[in-house]
Amino acid sequence: MKDKILIVDDQENNRLVIEDILRKLKCEIRSAASGEEALNILENWIPDLILMDQMMPGLSGIETTARIKSLEAFTHVPIVMVTAKNELETLKDAFEAGAVDYIIKPVERITLTTRAKSALRTKHAFDQIKALTADLQAQKQELIKFTHMVSHDLKSPVASAASLFDFFHYRMQEEHADILKDEGMQDLLNRIPNALKKMLNFVDTMLDYATAGKAVGTIEKVSVEALIGEVLANFEHQIQEGIVTINKMENMPNVPCDPIKIEQVWQNLINNAIKHRGEQTSINIILGWETQTDHYQFWVQDDGPGISPENREKVFEAFLRLSDNVEGSGIGLSTVQQIIKAHGGQIHVDPNFNEGAKFVFSLPKNRI
Predict the structure, then answer these.
(1) Mean pLDDT of the chain
(2) Please, which residues have CB within 8 angstroms of residue 55's CB and are 6 or more apart in sequence?
(3) What is the pTM of this model?
(4) 4-212: which CATH topology?
(5) Between 1.10.1740.10, 3.30.565.10, 3.20.20.390, 1.20.1070.10, what CATH number should domain 220-364 receive?
(6) How many CB atoms lie within 10 A of CB 203?
(7) What are 142-182's pLDDT values in tens digits?
(8) pLDDT over 80 at 257, yes or no
């Protein structure tokens, strides 16, 4: 199926130039000479990308963008502003209206093609997420809340990948270094990658939670020793910066499990300890284990502020955040609990450990 692109510009020459450049993408392209005409077209047609001229008589590009974004059917349709250099100061209003990127006139072939491809890839990703969400709704009633949160938090789709932004920033430095000296513009450029990273992390976390309790993947005899080694590599920066010290007991066993999901368990538990270290500049974490009759018992303990008795069960509730001072989606520990249960194990907060927090979980020695 061809991608669909709408070009909105009051100047016919501009529309023709853009259409000529995008023709190689083999998309279905329509054009509008005004904001009003664009809204009329969108009554019966939903594009995958909208290129919007910022300054137009009648409805401006910003006003048209705001009206489009107020319509539910266009929540995830990326809008890229096409603007002149002397209009850059109004870009903040464009982003607040719902635009996700911009292109400076006169339009360059490489810039336009790259931005259009990136925006379309992002739209496709959101479409895939939407399809996956619908499938999960049918399989699990609990995902109704998940679906609501995802649809709510994806209302301002991010149209640029981190690599594209790096490329864009490089071009700005090479060709428009004077623009980067403007504090307002620099602040805008700093917010774009931060918003992208935050959104993608949120989506990834939600999808992890959605699939955590489903049937585990391929079960293998996994070396927990090696698995933890891979996990610790992800915290190398925090360790080098002195934010955390992590020690583990030796000779950890081989366990039948889904290595990808059990790695996620260790990752989430360690990350949870670091995030909740409170006012401490550094936190010490110990990873331990012991063998029981029919299962192995593992734990992640820290010397942080700990968890109050009334919250030891609440920490595993989905979408519940016990502190507003800590960033997160509130589902990391709930995801851990679902993964452990799917493996036939259990997890709890040790009520007898009073020198911080200690999460203890079990995994069967033999997979049934």
Answers:
(1) 83
(2) 61, 83, 84, 87
(3) 0.47
(4) Rossmann fold (3.40.50)
(5) 3.30.565.10
(6) 17
(7) 554 554 455 445 544 544 455 667 677 677 777 777 777 77
(8) yes
